[in-house]
Amino acid sequence: xxxxxxxxxxxxxxxxxxxxxxxxxxxxxxxxxxxxxxxxxxxxxxxxxxxxxxxxxxxxxxxxxxxxxxxxxxxxxxxxxxxxxxxxxxxxxxxxxxxxxxxxxxxxxxxxxxxxxxxxxxxxxxxxxxxxxxxxxxxxxxxxxxxxxxxxxxxxxxxxxxxxxxxxxxxxxxxxxxxxxxxxxxxxxxxxxxxxxxxxxxxxxxxxxxxxxxxxxxxxxxxxxxxxxxxxxxxxxxxxxxxxxxxxxxxxxxxxxxxxxxxxxxxxxxxxxxxxxxxxxxxxxxxxxxxxxxxxxxxxxxxxxxxxxxxx
Length: 312
Prior knowledge:
Helix content is 36%, strand content 21%. By secondary structure, it is α+β, with helices and mostly antiparallel strands.
Protein backbone atom coordinates (compact mmCIF):
# COMPACT_ATOMS: atom_id res chain seq x y z
CA UNK A 1 0.00 0.00 0.00
CA UNK A 2 1.18 3.55 -0.82
CA UNK A 3 0.88 6.07 1.99
CA UNK A 4 -1.47 8.97 1.22
CA UNK A 5 -3.09 7.28 -1.76
CA UNK A 6 -6.90 7.85 -1.44
CA UNK A 7 -7.62 4.77 -3.61
CA UNK A 8 -5.65 2.52 -1.27
CA UNK A 9 -7.09 1.04 1.89
CA UNK A 10 -5.46 -0.47 4.91
CA UNK A 11 -5.37 -4.27 4.72
CA UNK A 12 -6.82 -4.49 8.25
CA UNK A 13 -10.13 -3.12 6.90
CA UNK A 14 -10.31 -5.26 3.73
CA UNK A 15 -12.54 -7.97 5.20
CA UNK A 16 -14.85 -5.37 6.76
CA UNK A 17 -15.11 -3.34 3.58
CA UNK A 18 -15.97 -6.37 1.46
CA UNK A 19 -19.05 -6.96 3.59
CA UNK A 20 -19.98 -3.29 3.52
CA UNK A 21 -19.74 -3.02 -0.25
CA UNK A 22 -21.85 -6.17 -0.74
CA UNK A 23 -24.50 -4.75 1.60
CA UNK A 24 -24.62 -1.45 -0.28
CA UNK A 25 -23.63 0.61 2.71
CA UNK A 26 -20.61 2.23 1.05
CA UNK A 27 -19.99 3.94 -2.21
CA UNK A 28 -16.62 4.21 -3.93
CA UNK A 29 -15.59 7.56 -2.49
CA UNK A 30 -12.35 7.78 -0.52
CA UNK A 31 -12.54 5.98 2.80
CA UNK A 32 -13.73 7.91 5.87
CA UNK A 33 -14.32 6.44 9.30
CA UNK A 34 -17.81 7.96 9.47
CA UNK A 35 -18.75 5.67 6.59
CA UNK A 36 -18.28 2.51 8.69
CA UNK A 37 -21.69 0.73 8.93
CA UNK A 38 -23.49 0.51 12.20
CA UNK A 39 -23.34 -2.55 14.46
CA UNK A 40 -26.90 -3.46 13.49
CA UNK A 41 -25.93 -3.61 9.82
CA UNK A 42 -22.88 -5.74 10.57
CA UNK A 43 -24.94 -8.06 12.75
CA UNK A 44 -27.52 -8.45 9.99
CA UNK A 45 -24.81 -9.29 7.45
CA UNK A 46 -23.24 -11.87 9.78
CA UNK A 47 -26.63 -13.44 10.51
CA UNK A 48 -27.40 -13.76 6.79
CA UNK A 49 -23.97 -15.26 6.11
CA UNK A 50 -24.27 -17.72 9.01
CA UNK A 51 -27.79 -18.76 7.99
CA UNK A 52 -26.61 -19.61 4.47
CA UNK A 53 -23.72 -21.66 5.83
CA UNK A 54 -26.01 -23.46 8.27
CA UNK A 55 -28.56 -24.20 5.54
CA UNK A 56 -25.87 -25.69 3.30
CA UNK A 57 -24.51 -27.82 6.14
CA UNK A 58 -28.03 -28.98 6.99
CA UNK A 59 -28.70 -29.90 3.38
CA UNK A 60 -25.44 -31.85 3.17
CA UNK A 61 -26.27 -33.62 6.42
CA UNK A 62 -29.70 -34.62 5.12
CA UNK A 63 -28.21 -35.99 1.89
CA UNK A 64 -25.63 -37.96 3.88
CA UNK A 65 -28.28 -39.44 6.17
CA UNK A 66 -30.39 -40.47 3.18
CA UNK A 67 -27.39 -42.13 1.54
CA UNK A 68 -26.61 -44.07 4.73
CA UNK A 69 -30.24 -45.11 5.11
CA UNK A 70 -30.48 -46.30 1.49
CA UNK A 71 -27.22 -48.25 1.72
CA UNK A 72 -28.31 -50.04 4.87
CA UNK A 73 -31.80 -50.68 3.52
CA UNK A 74 -30.36 -52.35 0.41
CA UNK A 75 -27.94 -54.46 2.46
CA UNK A 76 -24.98 -52.65 0.87
CA UNK A 77 -25.80 -54.10 -2.53
CA UNK A 78 -23.01 -53.57 -5.03
CA UNK A 79 -23.06 -54.40 -8.72
CA UNK A 80 -19.32 -55.11 -8.88
CA UNK A 81 -19.55 -57.49 -5.93
CA UNK A 82 -22.35 -59.40 -7.67
CA UNK A 83 -20.36 -59.58 -10.92
CA UNK A 84 -17.25 -60.79 -9.11
CA UNK A 85 -19.28 -63.49 -7.36
CA UNK A 86 -20.50 -64.70 -10.73
CA UNK A 87 -17.06 -64.60 -12.40
CA UNK A 88 -15.36 -66.40 -9.51
CA UNK A 89 -18.06 -69.10 -9.42
CA UNK A 90 -17.71 -69.69 -13.18
CA UNK A 91 -13.90 -69.91 -12.95
CA UNK A 92 -14.05 -72.32 -10.00
CA UNK A 93 -16.43 -74.58 -11.89
CA UNK A 94 -14.21 -74.59 -15.00
CA UNK A 95 -11.05 -75.28 -12.98
CA UNK A 96 -12.62 -78.15 -11.04
CA UNK A 97 -14.01 -79.67 -14.24
CA UNK A 98 -10.55 -79.53 -15.82
CA UNK A 99 -9.19 -81.48 -12.86
CA UNK A 100 -5.55 -82.07 -12.05
CA UNK A 101 -5.45 -79.93 -8.91
CA UNK A 102 -3.42 -81.34 -6.00
CA UNK A 103 -5.35 -82.50 -2.97
CA UNK A 104 -4.08 -81.38 0.40
CA UNK A 105 -0.95 -79.39 1.24
CA UNK A 106 1.44 -82.16 0.17
CA UNK A 107 4.13 -84.32 1.75
CA UNK A 108 6.91 -83.36 4.13
CA UNK A 109 9.29 -82.30 1.34
CA UNK A 110 6.71 -79.98 -0.18
CA UNK A 111 5.85 -78.50 3.19
CA UNK A 112 9.48 -77.74 4.07
CA UNK A 113 10.60 -76.47 0.65
CA UNK A 114 9.19 -73.01 0.02
CA UNK A 115 9.60 -73.38 -3.75
CA UNK A 116 7.30 -76.42 -3.74
CA UNK A 117 4.47 -74.94 -1.72
CA UNK A 118 1.17 -75.56 -3.46
CA UNK A 119 -0.59 -72.26 -4.21
CA UNK A 120 -3.91 -73.91 -5.13
CA UNK A 121 -5.24 -77.09 -3.53
CA UNK A 122 -8.50 -78.94 -3.02
CA UNK A 123 -9.61 -80.63 0.14
CA UNK A 124 -12.30 -81.04 2.78
CA UNK A 125 -12.64 -79.07 5.98
CA UNK A 126 -13.31 -80.41 9.45
CA UNK A 127 -17.03 -80.48 8.69
CA UNK A 128 -16.44 -82.60 5.58
CA UNK A 129 -17.28 -79.91 3.03
CA UNK A 130 -15.10 -79.74 -0.14
CA UNK A 131 -13.26 -76.53 -0.90
CA UNK A 132 -10.78 -74.92 -3.25
CA UNK A 133 -8.04 -73.07 -1.36
CA UNK A 134 -5.97 -70.24 -2.81
CA UNK A 135 -2.83 -68.83 -1.24
CA UNK A 136 -3.00 -65.04 -1.22
CA UNK A 137 0.19 -64.30 0.68
CA UNK A 138 2.73 -66.16 2.80
CA UNK A 139 5.66 -64.45 4.50
CA UNK A 140 6.46 -61.89 7.17
CA UNK A 141 4.46 -58.97 8.50
CA UNK A 142 5.74 -56.18 10.74
CA UNK A 143 3.52 -54.34 13.21
CA UNK A 144 4.77 -51.13 14.84
CA UNK A 145 2.33 -50.28 17.61
CA UNK A 146 4.55 -49.65 20.63
CA UNK A 147 7.54 -51.74 19.59
CA UNK A 148 8.18 -53.29 16.16
CA UNK A 149 7.05 -56.92 16.12
CA UNK A 150 7.57 -59.52 13.42
CA UNK A 151 4.84 -61.93 12.48
CA UNK A 152 4.62 -64.99 10.29
CA UNK A 153 1.72 -64.10 8.01
CA UNK A 154 -0.43 -66.57 6.04
CA UNK A 155 -3.37 -65.34 3.99
CA UNK A 156 -5.68 -67.75 2.15
CA UNK A 157 -9.07 -67.88 0.52
CA UNK A 158 -11.45 -70.82 0.84
CA UNK A 159 -14.02 -71.21 -1.95
CA UNK A 160 -16.81 -73.69 -1.26
CA UNK A 161 -18.43 -74.80 -4.55
CA UNK A 162 -21.99 -76.04 -4.96
CA UNK A 163 -22.73 -79.24 -6.83
CA UNK A 164 -24.74 -77.64 -9.60
CA UNK A 165 -22.48 -74.60 -9.93
CA UNK A 166 -22.10 -71.45 -7.93
CA UNK A 167 -20.54 -70.92 -4.54
CA UNK A 168 -21.87 -71.93 -1.17
CA UNK A 169 -19.48 -69.78 0.85
CA UNK A 170 -16.36 -67.60 0.55
CA UNK A 171 -13.88 -67.30 3.42
CA UNK A 172 -10.90 -64.92 3.47
CA UNK A 173 -8.50 -65.89 6.24
CA UNK A 174 -5.52 -63.94 7.62
CA UNK A 175 -3.42 -65.83 10.16
CA UNK A 176 -0.48 -64.33 12.08
CA UNK A 177 2.00 -65.73 14.58
CA UNK A 178 4.25 -63.47 16.62
CA UNK A 179 7.42 -65.55 16.74
CA UNK A 180 9.75 -63.09 18.51
CA UNK A 181 10.46 -63.00 22.25
CA UNK A 182 9.91 -65.65 24.91
CA UNK A 183 6.17 -65.93 24.26
CA UNK A 184 4.06 -65.41 21.18
CA UNK A 185 0.44 -64.91 20.23
CA UNK A 186 -1.58 -66.34 17.37
CA UNK A 187 -4.37 -64.24 15.90
CA UNK A 188 -6.63 -64.62 12.92
CA UNK A 189 -9.11 -62.42 11.07
CA UNK A 190 -11.73 -63.78 8.69
CA UNK A 191 -14.17 -62.32 6.17
CA UNK A 192 -17.03 -64.76 5.54
CA UNK A 193 -19.81 -64.38 2.98
CA UNK A 194 -22.41 -67.10 3.56
CA UNK A 195 -24.22 -66.65 0.25
CA UNK A 196 -21.98 -65.23 -2.53
CA UNK A 197 -24.40 -65.14 -5.44
CA UNK A 198 -24.60 -63.01 -8.58
CA UNK A 199 -28.06 -61.63 -7.97
CA UNK A 200 -27.70 -58.94 -10.64
CA UNK A 201 -27.23 -61.46 -13.47
CA UNK A 202 -29.03 -64.46 -12.00
CA UNK A 203 -29.62 -67.43 -14.31
CA UNK A 204 -33.10 -67.51 -15.79
CA UNK A 205 -33.66 -63.81 -15.25
CA UNK A 206 -35.90 -62.41 -18.02
CA UNK A 207 -34.58 -59.74 -20.34
CA UNK A 208 -35.52 -56.24 -19.24
CA UNK A 209 -36.12 -57.25 -15.64
CA UNK A 210 -35.30 -54.58 -13.04
CA UNK A 211 -31.85 -54.63 -11.52
CA UNK A 212 -31.69 -56.53 -8.23
CA UNK A 213 -28.53 -56.60 -6.14
CA UNK A 214 -27.53 -59.17 -3.57
CA UNK A 215 -28.14 -58.28 0.06
CA UNK A 216 -24.73 -58.42 1.75
CA UNK A 217 -26.00 -57.77 5.28
CA UNK A 218 -24.72 -61.12 6.58
CA UNK A 219 -21.13 -60.53 5.49
CA UNK A 220 -19.30 -61.49 8.70
CA UNK A 221 -15.99 -60.39 10.21
CA UNK A 222 -14.41 -62.63 12.84
CA UNK A 223 -11.40 -62.19 15.11
CA UNK A 224 -9.51 -64.98 16.86
CA UNK A 225 -6.63 -64.84 19.32
CA UNK A 226 -4.82 -67.35 21.50
CA UNK A 227 -1.58 -67.28 23.56
CA UNK A 228 1.33 -69.65 23.10
CA UNK A 229 0.13 -71.83 25.98
CA UNK A 230 -2.85 -73.03 23.90
CA UNK A 231 -2.16 -75.95 21.55
CA UNK A 232 -3.08 -74.88 17.99
CA UNK A 233 -5.30 -77.85 17.19
CA UNK A 234 -6.96 -75.77 14.48
CA UNK A 235 -3.82 -75.81 12.29
CA UNK A 236 -3.35 -78.21 9.42
CA UNK A 237 -0.10 -79.98 8.41
CA UNK A 238 1.12 -76.82 6.68
CA UNK A 239 0.36 -74.55 9.65
CA UNK A 240 -2.72 -73.03 8.00
CA UNK A 241 -5.99 -73.08 9.97
CA UNK A 242 -8.76 -75.24 8.57
CA UNK A 243 -11.63 -73.70 6.66
CA UNK A 244 -13.88 -74.63 9.61
CA UNK A 245 -11.38 -74.29 12.47
CA UNK A 246 -11.88 -75.79 15.91
CA UNK A 247 -11.36 -72.35 17.38
CA UNK A 248 -13.90 -70.07 19.01
CA UNK A 249 -13.76 -66.44 17.79
CA UNK A 250 -13.33 -63.68 20.35
CA UNK A 251 -15.59 -61.33 18.40
CA UNK A 252 -18.02 -61.69 15.52
CA UNK A 253 -19.60 -58.83 13.61
CA UNK A 254 -22.21 -59.02 10.88
CA UNK A 255 -22.25 -56.15 8.45
CA UNK A 256 -25.83 -54.99 8.65
CA UNK A 257 -28.05 -57.22 10.79
CA UNK A 258 -28.10 -55.28 14.08
CA UNK A 259 -30.73 -52.64 13.38
CA UNK A 260 -30.88 -51.27 16.93
CA UNK A 261 -27.13 -50.77 17.31
CA UNK A 262 -25.55 -50.83 13.83
CA UNK A 263 -21.86 -50.63 13.08
CA UNK A 264 -20.82 -47.03 12.28
CA UNK A 265 -21.37 -46.38 8.61
CA UNK A 266 -17.72 -45.55 7.75
CA UNK A 267 -16.70 -48.93 9.19
CA UNK A 268 -19.44 -50.69 7.24
CA UNK A 269 -18.30 -49.03 4.03
CA UNK A 270 -14.69 -50.02 4.79
CA UNK A 271 -15.69 -53.67 5.31
CA UNK A 272 -17.46 -53.76 1.94
CA UNK A 273 -14.52 -52.05 0.22
CA UNK A 274 -12.01 -54.50 1.74
CA UNK A 275 -14.17 -57.44 0.67
CA UNK A 276 -14.43 -56.06 -2.85
CA UNK A 277 -10.64 -55.66 -3.13
CA UNK A 278 -10.15 -59.25 -1.99
CA UNK A 279 -12.65 -60.50 -4.56
CA UNK A 280 -10.75 -58.68 -7.31
CA UNK A 281 -7.51 -60.33 -6.25
CA UNK A 282 -9.06 -63.80 -6.14
CA UNK A 283 -10.60 -63.27 -9.58
CA UNK A 284 -7.16 -62.40 -11.00
CA UNK A 285 -5.55 -65.46 -9.39
CA UNK A 286 -8.27 -67.77 -10.67
CA UNK A 287 -7.98 -66.31 -14.17
CA UNK A 288 -4.28 -67.18 -14.12
CA UNK A 289 -4.96 -70.72 -12.91
CA UNK A 290 -7.65 -71.14 -15.55
CA UNK A 291 -5.29 -70.05 -18.33
CA UNK A 292 -2.64 -72.50 -17.11
CA UNK A 293 -5.21 -75.30 -17.15
CA UNK A 294 -6.20 -74.46 -20.72
CA UNK A 295 -2.53 -74.37 -21.74
CA UNK A 296 -1.85 -77.75 -20.12
CA UNK A 297 -4.89 -79.25 -21.84
CA UNK A 298 -3.88 -77.91 -25.25
CA UNK A 299 -0.33 -79.17 -24.78
CA UNK A 300 -1.58 -82.65 -23.89
CA UNK A 301 -3.92 -82.69 -26.90
CA UNK A 302 -1.10 -81.63 -29.18
CA UNK A 303 0.98 -84.57 -28.02
CA UNK A 304 -1.87 -86.97 -28.68
CA UNK A 305 -2.72 -85.79 -32.20
CA UNK A 306 0.89 -85.20 -33.34
CA UNK A 307 1.47 -88.26 -35.57
CA UNK A 308 4.66 -87.07 -37.30
CA UNK A 309 6.75 -87.07 -34.15
CA UNK A 310 7.69 -83.38 -34.09
CA UNK A 311 7.15 -83.28 -30.33
CA UNK A 312 9.61 -86.09 -29.67
